[in-house]
Write the structure tokens for this entry.
Amino acid sequence: MTGSENNVLLRVEGLVKHFPITRGIIFQRQIGAVRAVDGISFRIHKGETFGLVGESGCGKSTTGRTILQLYQPTAGHVYFEGIDLVGLDKEKLRHMRRRMQMIFQDPYASLNPRMTVGEIVAEPLVVHGVAHGAEAQKRVDYLLELVGLNPAFSNRYPHEFSGGQRQRIGVARALALQPSFIVCDEPISALDVSIQAQVVNLLEDLQNQFGLTYLFIAHDLSMVRHISDRVAVMYLGVIMELADRDQLYTNPLHPYTYALLSAVPVADPLVEERRQRVILEGDVPSPANPPSGCRFRTRCRYATEICAEKIPEWREMVKDHWVACHHVAEGGIPPWKRM
Amino acid sequence: MLRDAGASPRVLEVSDLVTQFQTTDGVVHAVNGVSFSLDSGETLGIVGESGCGKTVTVLSMLRLIPEPPGKIARGKAVFLGNDLLAMTPDEIRQVRGAQIGMVFQDPMTSFNPVLTIGRQLTEPLEIHLGMTSEQARDRAAELLEMVGIPQARERLNDYPHQFSGGMRQRVMIAMALSCTPQILIADEPTTALDVTIQAQIVELIKRLRDEIGMAVIWITHDLGIIAGLARRVIVMYGGYIIEHAAVKELYANPLHPYTIGLIGSLPRLDRVRDRLTSIDGLPPVLYEEAKACPFAPRCPFVLDKCRQENPPLMEVAPRHEIACWVDVKTGELRS
């Protein structure tokens, strides 16, 4: 992958997160597991925006939360600036958390309705013992201004704000401890179109100003193309393809990426007229019982016997362009150009 | 009004529709004098952000607004010669679900969870078409097959929770089409679905539209979907229609500052843009009739006149209407 080793901020290796399925009320037995994230590896470089896309239930949000150790990983490692967060003791992890923050999807559910905006944004400062009282208030005023809100609003409650403004409050809270890494989990999908652009522009400005690194999780492929430097495509708990943004969007190699891109409508009637759509049949299988071999094979028109028998290897087919598919040929030739 | 010469017969003509809601904060003016028409077999897109009045417009037309707190203050909605707004409750029930079908946004909450899909599909067939339960069951199985549900006959015995989101939306479409309607109203039918499933549903509705020859009103906030689907597009803001044009004209040559802003705020899948143009501020909630242009507080082109008088919908180019005083090319008042 691009960049030297010391340019890597976050390294994820073989990350697995299974949620147990239990039966029984008093004597609970585990009868299976939802394999939400099932062995993924990637690196995020300093100052870049790493896009993680996929459909609902593919494990992209679980990935974000497991990286931040909000969920305990079932297996695997997460190295943040070389330090493995998995198995780190509580106190050390708490200290590391200052550097890593999260912006949540739902600006209505992620702010405590009984706290004022000032209290919400100051809370991380107080919890981590960074600032108190007047000093904290000064910092809150600065942060609110930074995200485009009037500091005079800090005595108001979340319900007095619109969705876009609440998301700005969430951004201010995430920035309070001056983190270097922020997981943005679908930060704009609950917002109206004209407001989405406001929040995305804000995130980009803040990145330029503070050199932030983002993991941007979203299902909106157009927005991910806009904001990301590199993009990974997830399906049923595994990464199918990973490449530079333009490479992935103009020259996808995995049949799933290809179908996903062709399914997204483009806001231009002239383009839409000429487009050939690949319509995928059926639904995503259950992550509790994923297909053998390649997980996409049940919906893939190029699937053959080998796809059911063997899990496809994660291969770098073109420089910095990784894909997990049996039918991508050497030199990066996708199956639809061969079969 | 914008019409092709020798166009197909008109199936719907809505004129000067006004709908208001009584709330504790005052009377919300949700729809403010909306007029549009629909020809047989055509697809009309209604685009706008939440609260712009797009859903209330069609719900008013179908008399599905809860009264009170809602009230249809004036207007007409003439469907094949009869005004829907002047019908008795019994008469409108004959139209709804029979001649006008509906598909809603949320396939999870639009079904009765304690009745089988078969029961819910056969009900309109028995009521509207007078079929026997045997006939209705056969027809219901046919309908499920038509929308691409495997093992259709067995699945009639299943309950809504046994279907996935995409499948549930297919069942909903089957139900909406069960009586071969003249008009299908699709209110954000794919918003709750993933893109690959959305593509399935859009293709399905396009195919069925062409087979049955029905007209479609597609309501959405997504300018992307409309681009490949509609022939004409209406853009709504603050309960007003602010732009109306043929689909290609609208995307190539948007003339209202709001539409321009909306298109500019969209990232593109097929190319990279440096920066999105955002529209500052928030959409309005109107507690009284607008005395100024409702978009004026957010408009980069705003002039004095915009703050004094609300512009009516005017034809400013052939078959292209906008409600705006400003010529965005010069930044000055339109002469």
Summary: Chain A touches chain B through 46 residues (CB under 8 Å). Chain A has a mean pLDDT of 90. The radius of gyration of chain A is 21 Å. The CA atoms of residues 229 and 236 of chain A lie 23 Å apart.
